[in-house]
Write a structure and sequence with these properties.
- This protein is mainly beta and 170 residues long.
- Helices cover 12% and strands 35% of the residues.
- The chain is built from 1 helix and 12 strands, in the order αββββββββββββ.
- The strands form 3 sheets. The chain has a 4-stranded antiparallel sheet with strand order 1-2-3-4, with helices on one face. The chain has a 4-stranded antiparallel sheet with strand order 5-6-7-8, with no helix packed on it. A 4-stranded antiparallel sheet has the order 9-10-11-12, with no helix packed on it.
- A hairpin with a 5-residue loop joins strand 3 and strand 4.
């Protein structure tokens, strides 16, 4: 497969978000046997950066300075605002929502407010782009700005980093 080095970042992210949304709708449909999800729906936002589906079939969309929640019918259920742009979202096995902001991970609290976990990560170039949640509560946050993966405890404290090997090292 040939790499498209000339593809602008925004175009790549937009096409990736569309593909992820389609896959998430397909995955969400497996949870609701009786409901038929829409083939598509519109997210009212300038920039969509991430999407996640809960085991209950609820879609969470990282859009601008908020997380928008949708049902399988494509209807918006609610919106949770954030002080910074929300860059990525992920549900854990218990159905709790986590969000990656520019340089910090936050969890949606019972009160419906995003609660930052731990201290801000990295430096000025930090840019969280993806979250993965382990069954033991650990959080893995991909940082495209620092070019590493943060390994965090469930409370957000840094446990370590995963960095690529130096060029030429195997």
């Amino acid at each position: 497969m040939k790499a498209h080095a000339s593809l602008p970042r925004r175009a790549f992210l937009t096409s990736s978000a569309r593909a992820t949304a389609a896959l998430s709708l397909t995955a969400a449909s497996a949870f609701a046997v009786e409901e038929k999800p829409p083939r598509s729906f519109t997210v009212e936002a300038t920039q969509v950066r991430g999407i996640a589906v809960s085991t209950h079939g609820e879609l969470a969309v990282a859009a601008d300075h908020a997380i928008q929640f949708y049902g399988l019918d494509g209807q918006r259920l609610r919106t949770v605002s954030a002080a910074q742009p929300v860059r990525c979202v992920a549900f854990d096995a218990q159905g709790r929502l986590f969000a990656g902001l520019k340089n910090q991970v936050a969890r949606l609290g019972a009160s419906g407010v995003l609660e930052p976990l731990g201290e801000p990560l990295g430096g000025r170039d930090s840019a969280l782009t993806c979250l993965a949640l382990a069954d033991d509560g650990q959080i893995f946050a991909a940082d495209s700005g620092e070019r590493l993966i943060w390994r965090l405890a469930a409370d957000g404290h840094v446990l370590g980093q995963i960095k690529p090997a130096a060029p030429g090292v195997t």
